[in-house]
Amino acid sequence: MTFHQYPKAQGLYSPSFEHDACGIGFYANIKGHASHEIVKNGLEMLCRLDHRAGRGGDGRTGDGAGLMVQIPDAFFKLNCPEFNLPKKGEYGVGQLFFTEDTRERESIENKINELIEQEGQTLIGWRTAPTNKEILSDIAKSTAPVVRQVFIKGENVDDSLAFERKLYLIRKQAEFWAQENHMKFYCPSMSSQKMVFKGLLTPEEVSEFYIDLQDESFISAFAIVHSRYSTNTFPSWERAHPNRYIVHNGEINTLRGNINWMTAREQRFVSEAFGDDLKKLLPIIDNSGSDSSMLDNAFEFFVLAGRTPAHTAMMLIPEPWTENPHISEEKKAFYAYHASMMEPWDGPTAICFTDGKQIGSILDRNGLRPARYYVTKDDMIVFSSEVGVVDIEEENVLYKERLSPGRMLLIDLEQGKIVSDEELKSEMAQAQPYAKWLEDNLVTVEADKETPKEIAELTIRQKSFGYTFEDIQKYIVPVAESGKDPIGSMGNDTPLAVLSDRPQSLFNYFKQLFAQVTNPPIDSIREHIVTSTMTLLGAEGNLLHPDAQNARRIFLETPILTDGELKRITSIHNKHFQHAVLALQFENSLETELQRLFDEADAAIERGISLLVLSDELDNVSTPTIPVLLAVSSLHQYLVRTGKRTLVSIIANSGEAREVHHFAALVGFGADAINPYLVYASIRGAIDGDHLKGSYHDAVRKYRKGIADGVVKVMSKMGISTVQSYRGAQIFEAVGISKEVVDRYFTGTASQIDGIDLETIGVEAKRRHQIALDSNNGLLESGSDFQWRANGEHHAFNPKTIHTLQTATRRNDYGLYRMYAEMANEEQLGFLRNMFEFNSTNQSIPLEEVESVDSIVKRFKTGAMSFGSISKEAHETLAIAMNRIGGRSNSGEGGEDTARFEIDENGDNRNSAIKQIASGRFGVKSHYLVNAKELQIKMAQGAKPGEGGQLPGNKVYPWVADVRGSTPGVGLISPPPHHDIYSIEDLAELIYDLKNANRDARISVKLVAKAGVGTIAAGVAKGGADVIVISGYDGGTGASPKTSIKHTGLPWELGLAEAHQTLMLNGLRERVTLETDGKLMTGKDVVMAALLGAEEYGFATAPLIVLGCIMMRACHLDTCPVGVATQNPELRAKFMGNADHIVNYMHFVAEEMREYMAKLGFRTVEEMVGRTDVLQVSERAKTHWKAGQLDLSTLLYQVQGARTKKTNQDLRIEDTFDLRELLSKVEKSIKEKESIELEYAINNTDRVVGTIIGSEISKKYGEVGLKDDTIKLKFTGHAGQSFGAFVPKGMSLSCVGDVNDYFGKGLSGGKLVAIAPIKGEQEKNVIAGNVCLYGATSGTAYINGRAGERFAVRNSGANVVVEGIGDHGCEYMTGGRVVILGDVGKNFAAGMSGGIAYVYPSDEAEFKERCNTEMIEFEKLEDKNEIEAVRSMIIKHLEHTESTIALDVLAQWDEFVRKVVKVVPTDYKAMIDKISYHKFLGLTEETAAMQAFVEATGVKELAISK
């Protein structure tokens, strides 16, 4: 028996992909007074965070819950008199989980007794903790442990920290011993200060299971709680929190790197605190745990080695300092010094930590987790993910606050006080002369003017590294010109590297990972302040011993070097920075050459060398080179394993690296810095050939900036902010490389299918090199990655397939379609599915017995393409066609014209059945949501997962702006993350919100295939989604950086098979419909998708081709010659598409499917789903020189059980406040448009209040809604998440008390009010959560207090008054007005392209410093009409809230007008002025907007008349 039931790795499932999220909090007495009341309130807090917790597949088993308290000394003395316990603090208690195996338990206990004696401590005794297993679910019961407690007396220890160290030594040695002897136990805590009570429990089961917690004598001065939401249904007692020092809500994105660096460092640690005992503790990190428990391992070690908990937290989770202008010099020096010894553990994080004497909490640099707290007049503090988790009288509240990004909160229980972030960090920063140490020891390298280096035989060198004309002219030159990664479109239809007939670069076998659901990507452009490319070279010092020598490093601003910088580095005359060059010639076997590298590195380190330069710049061009990625990664892994990695830096001097992906991969696999010498030579060649204007120096600088920014963007897709954390974090997955190569040379990298061995990698490198030597012309190959070439790489959509498909569908000629299908299916191994054939064991059936075409096409969908990216004609034609056949078209993320919700006179229906909800929330309002059959949350898209989007101003025509709620001619930004989805429980909340907004629609979640997508799909299924879409990386019709098109995400075949298998293992498959898309071209493709587990199928590229697309790949330029991907009326006139053609295509695909189904013996699609037993690898695939080595058996793995959706999800919508209390009372009022007013108390567990009522109004009255204030709902208390989400005109909701996150999300015309319950000082409190009014489209809101982070993100039309906000306010805003009667946080107005903010700050200069001025300007409030409009908003704020601040402002109106700062986006202002001017000249609103658009964007005049 174990304490978990994780299945072993099988098929494509691996336990290593597991994630979790949660609700956290603590309740404590600041003065350190203990009581049972605190324990009871902690347990109550857990229960009120239950909606953030997960449940197993049985709906009963909790994902884990627990609490940490002080050692209950009085309780133990009362209940264990036989132990004769010493004074509090002089004994420790170990809480242990054992199996039912008595013999094993006794062996482990005897060993622990032995270790206690060995460490010089005294055993007091053992106790069995009373537990109640009867209340548990069957699953929890089957893994429930025997809970035992060991009591240990401290002997010969100077202080409590020394005693804690002894207990740590005892525990660690016991764990190692049990592991070696294959015995099982788990120790939640062993300490003289604190105890952990946790398990596979629901929140309410914690106190019922642990009977001791119910005893009145069980007292503590604090209770720290955690309620877990796991992405699986596999139970685990160990993975519940609290851990031993921390509770963690978040995700460590850089975990692999953090573990590797810790492994390398620990072998060089010297510790005064542990002395010779240190070796008993290694390894410090237990790799079998979750990311949270590994962070806890590191935290525990540093605290016990002598750091304070606060110092440890600052080291592991530093606030941003390199790009942050708001940080003091002393703090900057503190962080810079610690960065020289350790990288951040990076990711979205809120942790609470304690050593039993101090409790603290820290938030990540991005503020991506909620954290609110109350301090009361009777010295209590309640801190949690939400407000309302403990009942506190408003009169007893001293103040209400939030934890800001990068900030820390500390309660010192011994001193009985709260230590502020400023005081705490200032004290830390002044503890040592960090600034002086850095000044004396840190070397900064910057080259003078760059001059070109002579490189002989340039063309041959370029060819030998695979350079093409396309690489130079379409990639390197654009980057050197613009400093940006170039854009492409229409996805990727070339084969995977392992399927290609041509020799490929090793870089192409690695795909970038990205964040979806379990953690958010970040916006490295608009939130640049949190990013850092800072890089340090040279040997690391000793992390456990702070002194001046640790600062002895070389500082670089970016890991991308220039020739000049590399020369400077290798010319430093300083014994601490000596270098050695390791040449990458490839003359013997690869294995031999790699061993040579290791030996040379060892010898260099032995000589005191601290800089290893791996160079493929060989004198003789006829000598092939080791692929640089293999050289870097294998050496990095070798040095980590041998404990030498921190003694040296690895610099790659590479001719192969040229694209963003190459640099990201080199850094990700361990390179400290890279010099792309051949790129610089190519830039010089381009300048000499007149292909590039400007100086060499400027071109090199721009190229380097473009690449560095590109690497940051790649990191940010995974939610990583710093290059230092990204280095060695291996945020990639290998596709088509053998397990043996991965395990040895890319250790720990995700890889789902076995592929080519080391020898083939060598053969491929040598082939490419030989082709270069054999080519006798002086020209580079043209290149064919992004454009089809007759003699280039295979493209699935080529002139032949495009022409045949278009002709077939236009003529309704099935025979011609069969020719197209034959070409697509059989021509080349283009996709993984082409590797399979059907085995011949199946009994065929007559075609007439197979499900009909009309039935099959109902499973078909068209892809999510937004109106704005494609033309009105293309968008509507797709909807008409899909509605005709009973399939579904998808609106994409650009909203939809409400005129399309009505049936046309000729009976056509232009309404998209699927309405998408993406991060930009364009046009997402109540009316939009109720007019859908399916609501799709787009977590990622195939072309660019982990990234946002941008619609440039020249594509925002007036009709596009109208639908998106923005301004013509002004660019629009979709943020990389959904700002209401930072974790899995947030996604569950949005699913719940949308189900409230339209109870009849299916809720779908779109994911992109990547390693671990199955586990994410399991979490999504637990969150209540009805449909899960797995998109392939090769799909994608939108504009996207070329790096993303080629190098991010996986084929859908892998993602779909993994999701299907993992959902089945979890017992969740029957709850959801699985859908897939990504370059589905033929009926055979769809049959393959069904066999791998999909029930529904999406098509995007093929339908566009049917509509006339000819793959110009210029969608992003608005120049589409066939009127598909353009808004230009002149080009749209050339649109030849027809709904009949789409119908023909869908019918052809279904007919082809029927033929295969008859052959295979399947009567229905339903019975075909998941039947991989009818597939086998084809002979053609087995004989391919690379693909023949692929092991695809994991794709065909079958799990027993239901293979398709059988049961509907139950989100318990009937229990919502709206259905429980409101709807029956307001139905008459909605029907008869009669006013009604109702009053209620509200709690944080009442979520999404008002949304169902709003949906009923929208269904009946559309966008018009009801008269203002028809339905007035007044609440008192703590409103739960998403209060007033999507409420339409006619509804007015107010809450006296406070509101949680997502207040007013998607506000659609209604009115929302949050009112401070007590006036005066209390109005300065934080009373609203994070991400309020996200995506609001219209309506008003009044907040009588301060709000949290990311206020009014993507507001496109609501008018709001608030009395102070947190960081990133008004981000991406496109419309509406926001009046802020108070201060704002950092990075205000980032990406703000429309609307106006009026800010009344306490210090104008400081406010302006906090703004992101990239897109905005500041003005005074001078226009009379505008002054009156702002005054009117403040008067209404006063009327609704009785705000004393509003009263004061109105009383001193002239002073307010003088001091207020108007923040207006520059482009928006210019357009509004232009439109006003043309209206003044007599043009109508519509014509004035078009005229202004033409002037601003330079679109042809002719466009106006069309």
Automatic annotation (TrEMBL):
Keywords: 3Fe-4S, Amino-acid biosynthesis, FAD, Flavoprotein, FMN, Glutamate biosynthesis, Glutamine amidotransferase, Iron, Iron-sulfur, Metal-binding, Oxidoreductase
Record-linked PROSITE patterns: GATASE_TYPE_2
InterPro entries assigned: Aldolase_TIM, ET-N_metabolism_enzyme, GATase_2_dom, Glu_synth_asu_C, Glu_synth_asu_C_sf, Glu_synth_centr_N, Glu_synthdom, Ntn_hydrolases_N
Protein name according to UniProt: Glutamate synthase
Gene3D superfamilies, per the entry: Aldolase class I, Glutamate synthase, alpha subunit, C-terminal domain, Glutamine Phosphoribosylpyrophosphate, subunit 1, domain 1
Organism: Ureibacillus sinduriensis BLB-1 = JCM 15800
Residue ranges of domain Glutamine amidotransferase type-2 in the record: 22-414
Gene Ontology process terms (BP): ammonia assimilation cycle; glutamate biosynthetic process
